[in-house]
Design a protein that fits this description.
15 helices; 362 residues; alpha/beta; 12% strand; 9-stranded mixed β-sheet; binds iron/sulfur cluster; globular; single chain
């Protein structure tokens, strides 16, 4: 590593192939071809990273994933793979070689709901069994990932309780529209109901004894803010110390933009040339005035580190409230939730604040 070189936060999309058919993501209809996907030579050109998320598509579709991970560990302090957990044998085999690896299995609710949302018969059982096997092997950095929508919000807390019993991490997200999901119609319809379920989760997290969960509570507070179409609680610094790379070698600021934004291509360029290019700087200017207000862990986690005092003050305030109240958090701390409750803003007005393009078209 060069002197004064800053480690980055990177997301490596190893494939756009996927065996699931989720209702909030059409990527499976537009897969990459195996022969055009990131090669080990390109992976070798990536910079040093303090954190790497490996994702897809479904990353375990690639049978050479262990080779990719081996290469990534030469330049990354921590790696977490996002997967639907279906390819149990491949996951277990990888975990045997890299017991320090993080695995997040996307589960969208209890069995029936999950399988319906993900279009993956047997998906819940496969995902759950994979997690149990990883737990038995002694893997520590494992957990659930759930994308909250109208259809599964009522199972948010039950799934959190299951993950807690299993001693696992519980990561959340909500619906986004972008080129990455090949989707522009995602929208939460019953915001009040979804926010009420998030409020229950936030209070459970705040009452736990884990500081990590208190910060997760802040993230979920930000999700309520997001689904009501409000400006992000933290600035977005994607493309400054964070990047995404797709299966074609294109380096991008994030996965939340409407159209794909390209800083450069790592198949053809080297990292320094790409990162300092005119194109990359143009993208950084666009990020500074981006109005999509995403609230996904990929862009929020680096921001929570960079602006740590903002979530820390929120956590402190609610920690103190915990001492005097059984319910330290209320969704009505958000002005927009009060305004909606009080009829000062309508559902149609909130719909128009979302990135759902069908709303704009009507
Ligand atoms: S808000 Fe940030 S993460 Fe979302 S599209 Fe804009 S730059 Fe990307």
């Amino acid at each position: 590593m060069k002197k004064n070189e800053k480690k980055l936060n990177g997301t490596v999309i190893v494939t756009y192939r996927c065996n699931a058919k989720c209702n909030m993501c059409n990527r499976y209809l537009f897969p990459s071809k195996p022969e055009e996907e990131l090669t080990i030579e390109t992976i070798r050109k990536l910079p040093n990273m303090y954190f790497t998320n490996v994702t897809g598509g479904e990353p375990f579709i690639r049978e050479d994933l262990p080779d990719i991970i081996r290469e990534l560990y030469k330049k990354s302090d921590r790696i977490v793979i996002s997967t639907n957990g279906f390819f149990t044998d491949r996951i277990i085999s990888l975990a045997k070689e890299f017991p320090q690896i993080g695995i997040r299995i996307s589960i969208e609710g209890l069995e029936e709901t999950n399988n319906k949302i993900r279009g993956l018969p047997d998906g819940y059982k496969r995902g759950y069994d994979t997690l149990m096997k990883l737990r038995k092997m002694g893997l520590r950095d494992i957990g659930f990932g759930m994308t909250i929508q109208d259809q599964n919000a009522h199972e948010l807390v039950p799934l959190y309780d299951i993950s807690n019993k299993m001693g696992m991490e519980f990561a959340t997200a909500s619906l986004h529209n972008s080129f990455y999901f090949v989707e522009k119609r995602n929208i939460i319809s019953d915001r009040q109901m979804v926010a009420e379920n998030l409020e229950l989760l936030i209070n459970k997290m705040l009452k736990s004894s884990s500081p990590k969960k208190w910060f997760r509570a802040y993230f979920n507070h930000g999700l309520i803010n997001y689904i009501y179409g409000q400006p992000r609680l933290l600035p977005c610094d994607m493309s400054f110390d964070t990047f995404f790379i797709d299966p074609y070698g294109d380096v991008m600021p994030c996965n939340g933009t409407k159209d794909k934004e390209i800083m450069g291509n790592l198949n053809r360029q080297n990292w320094d040339e790409l990162w300092e290019s005119k194109e990359a700087n143009e993208i950084r200017k666009k990020v500074r005035c981006c109005n999509r207000q995403c609230w996904m862990i990929g862009s929020v986690s680096p921001a929570m580190h960079n602006y740590i005092w903002i979530p820390a003050l929120w956590v402190l305030k609610h920690f103190l409230k915990r001492l005097i109240s059984k319910k330290p958090y209320s969704m009505y701390e958000n002005k927009i939730c009060r305004d909606y409750r009080d009829g000062k803003v309508t559902k149609e007005q909130l719909d128009r604040l979302s990135t759902c393009e069908i709303i704009e078209e009507h």
